[in-house]
Design a protein that fits this description.
By secondary structure, the chain is mostly beta strands. It contains one helix and seven strands.
Length: about 70
């Protein structure tokens, strides 16, 4: 989801299996419960692993070609 408050993308599961927390409802309420978050404008992210945040470089690949030209 896109976190408007922090102006960044975050990745999160829908449910927390341990506490049955609905992460989608939490995100819609403005709470950030992501397990990975975008850092800046580039491909830098932080991932939660082993109770600590770790930096990761991510490369995104578009799987759908966007139409081009006047009709697009």
């Amino acid at each position: 989801y896109f976190d408007l408050k922090e102006m960044r993308w975050a990745i999160s599961p829908r449910w927390d299996g341990a506490t049955a927390t609905d992460f989608l409802a939490e995100a819609l309420a403005g709470n950030m419960l992501g397990i990975a978050v975008q850092q800046g404008d580039g491909g830098a992210w932080q991932e939660l692993f082993g109770n600590a945040w770790h930096y990761a470089q991510v490369r995104l690949t578009a799987l759908v070609v966007q139409p081009a030209g006047p009709a697009a």
